[in-house]
Design a protein that fits this description.
alpha+beta, single chain, 15% helix, 2 helices, globular, three-stranded antiparallel β-sheet
Length: 189
């Protein structure tokens, strides 16, 4: 079997933001691209835990840990009047972003670690609200304010919302009804 690679613990950087992985394999990673949902998977586009939620309607985007924490705090502040209400974060920032200083000459390696981020495609659910029953107006307002803090457009969804495949709403497939006709065609001779 392959020898296990050493895991790196980031010392004081771990507690700069609450949302950060405990251990990572490589501190510096490639920039990568926002995934484009091709194929037929609709995983992560409907609610799993709560009764109300928001999902990305615009282009896929890279969220930072700070943006997600700010949006989560806004939701918690708005729904704290409801006893037992919970906020579910469906994405997690696990990608380290490294940045070099401005006006730096070429070479001398990749920049230093700056913040954690996550890449989220179009149609993915970001936040859900659940726990105890919450009025739709309260949930809609809390999620609208959270969406204003994030850099893309969102749509409010419920348990009855259909899944998405990118920008396309996937309609449930109806089973084809087989109608067999007993009439026979008569050909004039």
């Amino acid at each position: 079997m392959w020898p296990s690679l050493p895991r790196v613990q980031l010392g004081g950087i771990r507690f700069r933001s609450q949302l950060a992985p405990r251990q990572i394999q490589n501190v510096k990673r490639h920039k990568g691209r926002i995934p484009i949902p091709t194929g037929g998977s609709t995983r992560g586009t409907t609610l799993a835990f709560g009764d109300w939620g928001i999902r990305i309607k615009g282009m896929g985007v890279r969220f930072t840990a700070k943006q997600l924490m700010t949006a989560e705090e806004v939701i918690k502040r708005n729904i704290k009047v409801v006893k037992g209400a919970k906020v579910y974060l469906r994405v997690f920032p696990d990608i380290p972003v490294c940045i070099k200083g401005n006006e730096t000459r070429m070479g001398k390696g990749k920049g230093t670690f700056e913040f954690w981020a996550t890449r989220v495609p179009t149609g993915r659910v970001i936040f859900e609200i659940g726990g105890t029953p919450i009025r739709e107006e309260l949930a809609r307002e809390a999620l609208r304010q959270a969406a204003d803090k994030l850099p893309t457009t969102f749509e409010f969804i419920t348990r009855q919302s259909l899944p998405r495949l990118g920008n396309v709403v996937v309609q449930p497939s109806s089973s084809p009804v087989s109608t067999t006709s007993t009439a026979t065609a008569v050909h004039p001779s």
